[in-house]
Amino acid sequence: MSIDKNDVILEIKDLKKHFAPHQSLAQTLTGKNRKVVKAVDGISFAIRRGEIFGLIGESGSGKTTTGKLVMKLIDPTSGTIEFNGEDVTKTDKERTKAYRRQVQMIFQDPYASMNPRFKIKDVLEEPLIIHKIPGGHVEHEEMIVKALTEVKLNPPEEFMGRYPHMLSGGQRQRVATARTLILNPLMLVADEPVSMIDLSTRAEILHMMKDVQRDLGLTYLYITHDLSTARYFTDRIAVMYLGRIVEMGDADDVIDHPLHPYTKALIDAVPEPETGKVDVIKELPISGEIPSPANIPPGCRFHTRCPYAKPECSAEAEPELIDVGNGHYQACRRYKEI
Ligand code: SF4
Fold it and tell me: Is beta strand 236-241 parallel, antiparallel or unpaired with respect to 37-48?
């Protein structure tokens, strides 16, 4: 099931971000080069308009770097980013600013992204001023009231006069969401938006974000290490391992019928609902730590931890992501045998 080009809002093609390591004078003089860190190493995916697309992986998988590339906070080493049919990989300052108005980011720690001396009204007016949104004080206040109402902080007038420290973690994440909505974006990039919020409030915040997405017809790129929220929240997911996508497809299909051994390990690590524990990736039922992106294993990059690895997995070329039907892609050459 291929995606109709007209439905696509964001298309990433063979995107790479390699960081050149800092060289000390001694290393330069001795000619000992440190290895390049391949944080994102050739990923491709397309997100449909109005879709919630999840990027899943443990720390070091490259998912957060991918989010920064999409937000144009860092430049890619190679590859392209197309938004609404326009190549935005390399844009001048003005076009980047216009792009960032259409594609907004929700951060993991809403408190860190707010000036603690600003009242909530000022926190929300700041992007209107930065982006020179026309209107005086009265018009801006109307926009602020509307945005706070959209994230269900009622009555909005009461919250406008508070400072960030007077709000709960969940309320602060609602304000952070309202601050993105005030610019009428087309897409939100949400990097672990509920990981710093009380367990009891996480579902409520995701529910609110889903309502907003549906009501306003937004598209989300949802970045998380947490497969259990991804299942509830996303339409499709891509599972990342060491800078590459190893499996991708409809969220239900990938989670109910995982094909790649890494995805299977992630799913096996999801706790029983009664324990309420959602920090799943710290206890993967596979051996060892994720290797360093400066030292990627040859062949299939998962072979050092894969319980099904055979000698050919490290000896042969890296397996490509292939479509096995119904838009379900996976990158294990032995997937039929396991
Ligand atoms: Fe495991 Fe080999 Fe498949 Fe890689 S190709 S996931 S090492 S079985």
Answer: unpaired
- CATH numbers and ranges of domains, the chain: 5-24+34-330 (3.40.50.300)
Counting atoms of ligand 1 from 1, which one is nearest the CA of 338?
A: 8
Beta carbon of 183 within 6 Å of any ligand 1 atom: no
For 138-150, the pLDDT digits (tens) are: 999 999 999 999 9
CB–CB of 134/182 below 8 Å? no
Q: Is 123 in the pocket of ligand 1 (CB under 6 A)?
A: no
Q: What is the pLDDT of residues 34-89, one digit of tens each?
A: 789 999 999 999 999 999 999 999 889 999 999 999 999 999 999 999 999 999 99
Which ligand 1 atom is at minimum distance from the Cα of 310? Answer: 2
Per-residue pLDDT tens over the stretch 168-207? 999 999 999 999 999 999 999 999 999 888 888 899 999 9
The percent of residues above 70 in pLDDT, for the chain, comes to: 93
HEC sequence for 96-109: HHHHHHHEEEECCC
- Strands 329-330, 244-250: pairing is antiparallel
Distance CA 34, CA 317 (A): 24
Looking at residue 272, its pLDDT comes to 55
Q: Mean pLDDT in the chain?
A: 91
Is the beta carbon of 300 within 6 A of some atom in ligand 1? yes
Alpha helices for 161-292 (secondary structure H): 169-181, 199-216, 227-233, 251-256, 261-268
Q: For residue 198, give the 3-state DSSP assignment.
A: coil
Q: Whose CA is nearest to atom 7 of ligand 1?
A: 303
DSSP string spanning 23-66?
Answer: PPHHHHHHT-PPPPEEEEEEEEEEEETT-EEEEE--TTSSHHHH
